[in-house]
Amino acid sequence: MLATFLLLLLSSLSSPSPAHAVPPRPPVRCGGGGVGCVLSNAYGAWSSDRADCPVSAVAYPASEQEVVAAVARASAAGTRVKVVSGFAHTIPKLACPGGGTGNSSTLLISTARLAGVEVDAAAQTVTADAGAPLRAVIDAAEARGLSLPAAPYWEGVSVAGLVATGSHGSSWWGRGGAVHDYVVALRLVVPAGEADGWARVLALKPGDDLFPAALVSLGLLGVVSKITLSLEPSFKRNITYEYRDDTTLQDDFAAHAARHEFADITWYPSQHTAVYRVDDRAPPDAHGDGANDFIGFQSTSIAVSAGIRALESSLERARSVRGKCAMAAAEIAAKRLVGSGLKNDGGLLFTGYPVVGRQGNMQTSGSCARSPPADILSACPWDPRFRGLFFYESTAFFSPPARFRDFLLDVKRLRDAAGAEKLCGVDAYNGLLVRFVKASAAHLGQSEDSVVVDFNYYRASDPAAPRLGQDVWEEVEQLAFVKHGARPHWAKNRLVAFAGVRGKYPRWGMFAAAKRQLDPRGLFDSPWSDEVVSGKEVEKSDGCALDGRCVCSEDRHCSPGHGYYCRPGLVFTEARVCRYSVSQNQ
Fold first, then answer.
1. What is the residue range of the signal peptide feature (predicted)?
2. Mean per-residue pLDDT for 51-75?
C-alpha cells in the first residue's frame, strides 16, 4: 500500500508542466443563450450543501460604470444580488444570491472581466479593479520595483475577494499578515433610492466611519469596484524549513513568530513533528533568484490525483488506520525531499536551504491556477471535474495567543487518549498549519493579535457516509470553536464552526449598523449567507453531523446503521461526536 502511494506521490512531483495543464473551470456556467446558469465553487461542493447555486441572471461588468448600472437595475427591481470573482474558492455558500430556486429575483455579478491594475510608483500604491487576480497585482508591483508585504498562501483569488473575506499570510510584524490591513482606499457600489438613480458609489479611506465595515464585508454591503493597497520598496525573502520534535511546540510558537517576520509552523501531530518556517526579508541585492511553488498547489497529473483519492477512499472503506499513517509518513518525507516546493536559483529545482528570492516569487503560490488551456493532462489536484482530492478545510483564529497554547495542549491530550494513529488523516494532507495575524481595524477582522490554525482532512463523496477517525476531528473542531472560543475564517470551515459567531466579534454591532445604513432592504442578503453570519444552528436531521451541518445530540444525527453513534469527547467531555463502535451500548 505504501509503495503504491509513494509511486503516485513521486509521479505527482514529476507531473507535466503547466503548459500541458487544464485551468480551473469558471465558477459560473450557463446553458445556450445565457440561460440556465449555475454557480459552483472551485471544489464542486459548498460547506452548507453540495448543490450548485442556480441563478437566473448574470452580469459581467468591465468597468465601475457597468457595476453601477447592474446594481441600479437590481435595486430598482428589488432583486437579490451577490458577487463572485473568476475564481470562487470560498467554501461557505456566501456568493449564492437566492434560496436555490433560480427564480427571476436573483442576480449574480461576476467580476471576472473587471480586472485592471495600475501602480503609482511615487505614492507606493497599487489600485486594482475588484476582479484583478492577486498574481497580476503582485507582478505589476514587482515590475515597478515595489512589493506587496502580505498575501495569502494561495494566489488563485481576486483582490476584492481576498480582502472581503479577511484572507491573510503570516506575520506579527509591521501591519501584520492580513491583506485588508494594507488597504488605503476602496470604492463601494451600494443600492440607493430612485432619487439617486438606484445606486451610488462610495469612495472610502481610513478615518471614514464606514471604512472599517467595508474592509472585511463578506459581500454583504454592496459591490467593491476598486481597491488601493499600500506597497513597499522591493525586497527579497530568505526561507528555511526546520524539522523538529513537537515536544516544546506549545512553548516555542510565540517566540518563533516574534523572531521571524514571516514565520509559520506546520504541525504533524501523528508524527510528533513540527516544521518551523524560518522566513525573513533580505535586501534586494541578496544573492538568490528562488521561488515558492508549493507542491500542493502545482498542477498534478489527473491520473495521479484520482489515484490518490481512490487509494484514500479504499483505506476509508477498509478502516485502515495503518494505511492512513503510511500516507502521512510518505507525504511528509516527500515534502522534506523537495523543500515543500521551494526552488533555488532559476526556480527549477530545490537544491538546499536557504532559498532566497524576490518577495513576489516567494510570498504566495498556485501555479495550477494559471495554467493556460491545453491538453487535459494535469490540473489542480482538487478540480471536481476529475474526481481528485476532496476535503474539508477548518480554520480557527485564537486570541489572545495563550488560548492557542491551551488548544494545542488539549490536542496533545487527545492524541494520547485516542492514539497518535487516529490523527494520521490530517497529516496525509498538510498537518495543522499555524500562522500569525495582527489585530485589525476591520470590524470583522481580528480584534487582537491572533494565532491561526488551518487543517484539511478527508471529505466523503457521499454526504451520508461516515469517515475514519471522524470523532477525533469533530472533537478537535469543538475544542477550537467551543471550548477555546476560536473565531472561524469567513471563507472556510464547515457550517458548525459558525455557531455563535456574532458573539465572537466585539464590533459585530458596528458592522450590522453599517449594513443597515448601506443596504436597508437586504438586497445583498441570502438564506445561504444568513446561515453563516447568523451563527444559529440549523434544524437537525438524520445524518446532519456527518457533513458538518450540526453537532450531534442523538445517534440518528450520526450513522447508527454504519456503527457511528453520538458520544462525548475523550478530552473535551462536553463535545458531542460521531464515534464508531461495534455496539450501540459501548
1. 1-21
2. 95
Q: What is the CATH number of the domain that holds 131?
A: 3.30.465.10
* DSSP letters spanning 158-217: BHHHHHHTT-B--BSSTT-SBGGGGEEEEEEEEE--GGGTTEEEEEE-TTSTTHHHHHS-
Strands (E), 302-444: 342-343, 355-358, 378-379, 391-398, 432-437
Number of domains in the chain: 2
Range(s) of the domain holding residue 414:
236-499
From 470, 499, 528, give the residue that closes a domain. Answer: 499
Q: How far is CA 166 from the centre of its chain?
A: 10
The CATH number of the domain holding residue 327 is 3.40.462.10
Q: pLDDT band at residue 4, thresholds of 50, 70 and 90? A: very low
- At 400, the amino acid letter reads P
Mean pLDDT for the chain overall? 93
Q: Do residues 305 and 427 both lie within one domain? A: yes
Task: Fill in the DSSP letter of residue 302.
Answer: H
Which pLDDT score is estimated for 53? 93
* pLDDT per residue as tens digits for the range 177-207: 999 999 999 999 999 999 999 999 999 999 9
